[in-house]
Design goal:
36% of the residues lie in helices and 25% in strands. It is an alpha/beta fold and 255 residues long. The structure holds nicotinamide-adenine-dinucleotide.
């Protein structure tokens, strides 16, 4: 039985994670990290703690869906007490991403801005399309619920990276995050990544390739957050006995 520690348990994804763990074989919840107290009841056999070291000691693998600053605290603690980590938190800054790389030298870490199978495949398709459709303009639009804090979504940025990589472009140089006013014509290499927010949209990503006379749009829509929690559980089972390294969701899904 694989023992899981959940970081971010009271969040939208975290709560589903606790439910899905109850219904999954060969894996169970063993510890939950909290800042103060949990505002819902939980099986008394689960360690609920504000002490991150005890939290790490009580599990075989951690699943994190929290916030960038919280994820940073987790990574710092894991550097002192190594543990396989499945990181789903998005919006990590350069320092936090470097910390993640540093930590993965001593423990297996799977970092995925989207844990769904569909988005993993979409990412591959975007790479292929970007390479094949030379000369097509690339534009990405993502839509999420009104509570989402980071923009554009980590998934949209991952898709943009794949599109840019397929054309040997540096995303930091070609990314456009908004258009307003008399900005002139679109330049050849730019890749726009636009974010829309509203209602309860779980997540929708469209990567469009536009040319004179035709266009293709690749779209993925998540209709339930369980796609992320179930994906993370599958990733935790896969990661728990791996060597120290930084893994992607594609490694886990073998696509
Ligand atoms: P949420 O705001 O509902 O939950 C955030 C959780 O983090 C809460 O449990 C909160 O208590 C906890 N938290 C905040 N600060 C903390 C701290 N300092 N220490 C410990 N815990 C802390 O958010 P959500 O919608 O559940 O999303 C969480 C993260 O997962 C976001 O970054 C989101 O973009 C990302 N996400 C990733 C995927 C994926 O597939 N990778 C899918 C959906 C959401």
């Amino acid at each position: 039985m694989v023992k899981v520690g959940v970081f971010g348990a009271s969040g939208r994804v975290g709560k589903l994670l606790l439910e899905d763990l109850k219904n999954t074989q060969d894996i169970s919840l063993s510890s939950v990290f909290v800042r103060n107290t949990l505002d819902f009841s939980i099986d008394p056999s689960v360690l609920v703690t504000t002490d991150i070291k005890s939290f790490l000691h009580a599990c075989d693998v951690v699943i994190d869906f929290s916030l960038p600053e919280a994820c940073e605290t987790l990574l710092e603690a894991a550097i002192a007490t190594p543990k396989p980590l499945v990181i789903g938190t998005t919006g990590l800054n350069i320092h936090q991403l470097n910390l993640l790389k540093q930590a993965s030298e001593n423990m297996p870490i799977l970092y995925a801005t989207n844990m769904s199978l569909g988005v993993a495949l979409l990412n591959k398709l975007v790479y292929q399309a970007s390479a094949a459709l030379e000369g097509f303009d690339i534009e990405i639009v993502e839509m999420h619920h009104r509570h989402k804090k980071d923009a554009p979504s980590g998934t949209a940025l991952t898709l943009a990276h794949s599109a840019a990589k397929a054309r040997d472009l540096d995303l930091d140089r070609v990314r456009v995050s908004g258009r307003d006013g008399n900005i002139g014509a679109r330049s050849k290499d730019e890749i726009a990544v636009m974010a829309l927010r509203g209602g309860d949209i779980v997540g929708r990503h469209t990567v469009g390739f536009y040319n004179d006379g035709e266009f293709i749009e690749l779209n993925h829509t998540a209709t339930s957050r369980n796609t992320f929690s179930k994906g993370a559980i599958r990733a935790a089972k896969w990661l728990v006995d791996k060597e120290a390294d930084l893994y992607s969701i594609s490694d886990c899904l073998e696509i």
